[in-house]
Amino acid sequence: MCGILGVLPTIEQKRFQSALDRLAHRGPDGEGIWKHPLGNITLGHRRLAIIDLKPEAAQPMSLGNLNITFNGEIYNYRELRLELEGLGSHFRTESDTEVLLAAYRQWKERCLDKLKGMWAFAIWNDDDKTLFLARDRFGEKPLFYSQINNQFVFGSEMKALMALGEGWMPSANFKKLVKQYDRYESSSDTLVEGISRFPAGHYGVFKDGELRLTQYWDTLSHLVNASSSFEAQTEQYRHLFGHSVALTLRADVPVGAAISGGLDSSSVLGAACQFTGKDRLSMAFTATFAGSRVDESEYARQLAIDKHIPLHEVSLDPLKALANLSDDLYCFEEIYRTPPSPMMELYSHYRKQQVFVSVDGHGPDEMFSGYGNFMLLALIDAGIDPLKWKDIINTYENAQPDRGIVKARKAGNHQVLLMQAYRFKEQWLDEKLPNTFRDEQLHKEAIKKMGYYNYALYQLFHYTIFPTLLRNYDRFSMRSGVEIRMPFLDPELVAFSFSIPWQSKIKEGYSKAILREAVRPWLPQSIVERKDKIGFQAPLADWLRGPWKEFLQDTIAADNFKTCELIDPAKTIQVLDKVWANAQATNEEAEEAWLALSPYLWQQHFFNRAIQTP
Fold first, then answer.
1. Domain membership flag for residue 82
2. What is the pLDDT of residues 35-94, one digit of tens each?
3. 144-167 exposure pattern, b = at least 16 Cβ within 10 A, e = fewer
4. Would 288 disulfide with which of 4, 23, 148, 297, CB 3.0-4.6 Å?
């Protein structure tokens, strides 16, 4: 995993070098620049050495008239290498980069169908003077591009592109800053005018001044006919998941695991120990918030002891996080409900412990609904079946016992429940989100294939919550040059997860039922049967009321805060005051305050710094 950069036609070397330097945190192990002898293109690379650490594996890499700069990892590179050798390819390195180049030479864009991993890469073909760009299926690795003043530029982060456009003064995308929306990260929009996000699951060909995009992956087209037996489904899921975890542990450097004590991250660690042995993992890492309501460290300790894995506990210091906040916001580039510093601090400890890869448990919340409200939609799928309704409602009650649906259930008013389910369907699928499919018939066919419940999860995973989380964790870890791998994102596993019915996900009072059963042999019962969900988060309300309060008060007292057009200063002060005045303020209220302030902080700590001339 690395940082990539490119410009067509080439520009002055010093300017390109300065832009590439802005990606140094993504690749602390080296850099490379390849410049076309006729000035057609310049490719840049910052290296984070994970597979084949030798200098021969450095990038940009050439194979005949092909030249590549690549960010990511191809987990099944060994299998692909054997296949390519059988077709006549010869290799001089042990790297996945060379395998990727050979795969493109052999199969062109069809090579993408064979890859398992995460990637954003560019290949220049000097034979036909074309640039081939591709991004992984779900958007684990970032890729941005821009066409300005007859230049085409692309790279891993916006700050690098902002330094490349000669004669271009970037401006803030005012509409996106003042009105964030759920589908932002899955759109082409960014917070900087003139810079576009390359879409996940697509490749593009740039030739004769035009970029033509083509979608190569659509999960809906890869759904399978799963067995009707829950037991058989569980066995298949266990097999797919175990194979995926084993693939993601391939590396020539130490690998660690981030565990929160919840089911998802624990499942990854359990599978890693089961399928590869505990010695494949160097250690596990967890964040601790002593005395806080969001501290889950006791569960993490139970798991580490059970698996005989060393556990590195990171006690997150709010004052240290505050000291790093400006640089963290610059690296983060985006706006979010919480500050990036706590998670960036966690992953910085990996590098301090000489661990450079983390296997994390992201994905099941969106595939199997760790978010209780979406269970309501299963009521529609269930039809008029009291037994099915009872199971759905019991599971919902376990997840969110204080919601109104529970009161309605206890009152025995099933009609109220169904009305709430349809109201949520209208708000989520019909009003809040634009249809995924422009063709209304395709929209209806998707619901027919998956049902309302699975279709809502499909939206969460591909278009709303999950793309944002993928973006966040890329920035959190790459701030310290640490690679995150996500075993739940194996394409076969994802397709299977959206092919099984809601009854395999909501069962006997538990959400994520199939995952729980699949990993039950590998985990302590206390973790498998946990019903509460806390999530990996800092105690933001405590921080805003305490150690960060003076900083925030100084921030809102600044003259440029009072005149900032990206925020409503009065409203921002109001929501901050609400948190300060209430000792029982929730994290949700603190997140509202942080989000209101974020456009101003983005302008001060990212945008104003990024537009400075290199």
1. yes
2. 999 999 999 999 999 999 999 999 999 999 999 999 999 999 999 999 999 999 999 999
3. bbbbbeebbbbbbbbbbbbbbbee
4. 297
Residues 167 and 258 in one domain: no
* Residue-level pLDDT at 292: 65
Question: Is residue 211 located within the same domain as residue 299?
Answer: no
Q: Give CA–CA dist 276/332, Å, rounded.
A: 34
pLDDT of residue 298: 85
The verdict on residue 598 lying in a domain is yes
What is the DSSP track for 147-212? EETTEEEEESSHHHHHTT-TT----B-HHHHHS--TTGGGSS--SBTT-EEPPTTEEEEEETTEEE
**Number of domain units in the chain:** 3
Note whether residue 507 is domain-resident. yes
The CATH number of whichever domain residue 227 belongs to comes to 3.40.50.620
| Per-residue pLDDT at 446 | 82
Which residues of the chain are under the pLDDT cut of 70? Answer: 165-166, 178-182, 290-295, 370, 372, 399-416, 428-440, 533-537, 613-614
Residue 138, domain extent: 3-217
**588 inside domain:** yes
Which CATH number fits the domain that encloses residue 212?
3.60.20.10
Same domain, 117 and 151: yes
Q: Is 116 left (phi over 0), alpha (psi -120 to 50) or beta?
A: beta
For residue 286, the SS3 value is strand
